[in-house]
């Protein structure tokens, strides 16, 4: 069993000495994978002190030098990529082939894309008699979840470091491999001590970090329930916050759209990483006339997604993270059964592999807008199909939850799709299957969060504008 028992503080690894730990299991076999040792408030104090001490020199070395460090970190992470893809696959259950591409290659590319902003981003702006300089916020507390562990660490650390901030990262205690790699990458890249500090821990450690007086900003990704608490704690000291939270994203299929493409793309989005994706499209909104055809197409699309061993190259759907996660998802399915919705695929009695935290990909049709299934984030492979009679109703359904992270619109033509996209309260809307753009702002309306990650929007989160007014000859 692996022992994840090291923090990374002030450029050195140090033993976690608290005695508290969580055991994690291989998602596909349920065999123990290792133990994550949890830190203490004292470890947080040490890490924040190191970040604070490292701040002035890190700001002084300048943007280009910081960008070089980001490139070096990307190279180091890439060199460990194969092992990391395998470890993340074991931790969270994502099929290995996808894990390599999505859990490792994409974040490595994001480190490089963020570094490249050093060449184009305007840090100093002239506005009349003001010179506005974008200055780093200071010491950043980064708290991340388990579902895309390296991706979420990257979304915070790469822009924070480029901005000139120093960081204390508290990664999820349920997916430790990515932060273990990051420690090695910081060493390999020769990152100055204290610029990145990593403290292993759970809610208790997260709480100490969020409330630490020398932390200027809290960048949090996780559930809306925890995000609310964290934001309230941070508000006590008026810390800057960035919150990337949950979602219940919808695809709206307009009359005349390519229903077959819409269904395939929605099913693929909903079941990616076994539904353990914040921006997964988990509601499919179709016209009542299209429902019978949609039902058929959904059943076909689900049948074409093999579930099984994540190490098998043909697997599209793996297990969930843990027994607890499986229980949570099954409770949503049990509720949907009780509500009597039209089961199109999966369900409680669907056959799944005997070992591993599997839940069969499940779809219910004719789901009511008020139901739990239509409103709560499941974070598992469960899709709800809702029907509308008029387009206005479809838009109201899409906007009808407290979330607003992502959405999709399928239309007969791009213009019609964009009109409806502009009516949706979501941070990211794809029209007719348009591809993901890593440079576009990613984040949510409503209870899906505050702030944005990605591209220049993600960088600006870690910068404060300082305006200096200068006397001009006309004054
Ligand atoms: P979670 O909220 O349980 O935990 C997230 C992080 O917060 C973990 O590191 C955890 O240890 C820490 N934490 C827990 N309680 C805390 C507290 N009281 N104070 C400080 N820190 C605390 O979320 P999770 O189960 O790890 O991740 C799944 C959730 O994350 C889903 O809701 C998903 O939608 C969301 N998510 C959102 C995005 C996004 O970009 N919007 C991306 C990925 C995941």
Automatic annotation (TrEMBL):
Q: Which UniProt keywords apply?
A: Oxidoreductase
What top-level branch of life does the organism fall under? Bacteria
Catalytic residues identified in the record: 244
Catalyses which reaction(s): an aldehyde + NAD(+) + H2O = a carboxylate + NADH + 2 H(+)
CDD domains per UniProt = ALDH_CddD_SSP0762
Q: Which residues form the signal peptide?
A: none
Return the PROSITE patterns for the record. ALDEHYDE_DEHYDR_CYS (PS00070), ALDEHYDE_DEHYDR_GLU (PS00687)
Q: What class of enzyme is it?
A: oxidoreductase
Q: Any idea of its EC number?
A: 1.2.1.3
Per the database record, which ranges form the Aldehyde dehydrogenase domain?
20-468
Molecular-function GO terms, alphabetical: aldehyde dehydrogenase (NAD+) activity
Write out the similarity annotation.
Belongs to the aldehyde dehydrogenase family.
User: PANTHER family annotated for this entry?
Assistant: ALDEHYDE DEHYDROGENASE, ALDEHYDE DEHYDROGENASE-RELATED
Q: What is this protein called?
A: aldehyde dehydrogenase (NAD(+))
Q: What is the protein's species of origin?
A: Cupriavidus pauculus
């Amino acid at each position: 069993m692996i022992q994840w028992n090291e923090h990374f503080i002030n450029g050195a690894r140090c033993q976690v000495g608290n005695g508290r730990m969580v055991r994690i299991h291989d998602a596909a076999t349920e065999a123990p994978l290792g133990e994550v040792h949890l830190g203490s408030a004292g470890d947080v104090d040490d890490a924040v002190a190191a970040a604070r001490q490292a701040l002035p020199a890190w700001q002084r070395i300048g943007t280009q030098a910081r960008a070089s460090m980001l490139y070096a970190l990307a190279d180091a992470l890439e060199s460990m990529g194969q092992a990391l893809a395998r470890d993340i696959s074991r931790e969270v259950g994502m099929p290995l082939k996808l894990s390599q591409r999505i859990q490792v290659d994409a974040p490595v590319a994001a480190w490089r894309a963020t570094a490249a902003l050093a060449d184009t981003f305007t840090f100093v702006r002239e506005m009349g008699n003001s010179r506005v300089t974008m200055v780093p916020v200071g010491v950043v507390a980064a708290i991340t979840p388990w579902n895309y562990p390296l991706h979420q660490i990257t979304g915070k650390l790469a822009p924070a470091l480029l901005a000139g901030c120093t960081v204390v990262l508290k990664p999820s205690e349920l997916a430790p491999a990515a932060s273990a790699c990051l420690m090695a990458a910081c060493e390999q890249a020769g990152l100055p001590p204290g610029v990145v500090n990593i403290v292993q821990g759970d809610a208790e450690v997260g709480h100490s970090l969020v409330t630490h007086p020398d932390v200027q900003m809290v960048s949090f990704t996780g559930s809306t329930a925890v995000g609310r608490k964290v934001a309230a704690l941070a508000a006590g000291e008026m810390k800057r916050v960035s919150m990337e939270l949950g979602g219940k994203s919808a695809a709206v299929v307009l009359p005349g759209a390519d229903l077959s493409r819409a269904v395939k793309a929605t099913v693929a989005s909903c079941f990616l990483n076994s539904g353990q994706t914040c921006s997964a499209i988990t509601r499919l909104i179709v016209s009542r006339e299209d429902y019978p055809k949609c039902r058929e197409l959904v059943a076909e699309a689900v049948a074409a997604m093999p579930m099984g061993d994540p190490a098998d190259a043909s697997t599209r759907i793996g297990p969930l993270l843990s027994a607890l996660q499986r229980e949570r998802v099954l409770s949503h399915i049990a509720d949907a059964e009780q509500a009597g919705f039209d089961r199109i695929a999966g369900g409680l009695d669907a056959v799944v592999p005997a070992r591993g935290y599997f839940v069969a990909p499940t779809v219910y049709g004719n789901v009511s807008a008020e139901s739990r299934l239509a409103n709560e984030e499941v974070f598992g492979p469960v899709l709800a199909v809702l029907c509308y009679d008029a387009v206005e109703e479809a838009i109201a359904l899409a906007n009808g939850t407290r979330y607003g992270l992502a959405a999709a619109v399928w239309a007969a033509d791009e213009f019609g799709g964009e009109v409806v996209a502009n009516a949706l309260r979501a941070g990211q809307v794809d029209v007719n299957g348009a591809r993901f753009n890593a440079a576009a702002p990613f984040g949510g309306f409503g209870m899906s969060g505050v702030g944005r990650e990605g591209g220049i929007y993600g960088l600006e989160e870690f910068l404060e504008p300082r305006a200096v007014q200068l006397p001009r000859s006309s004054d």
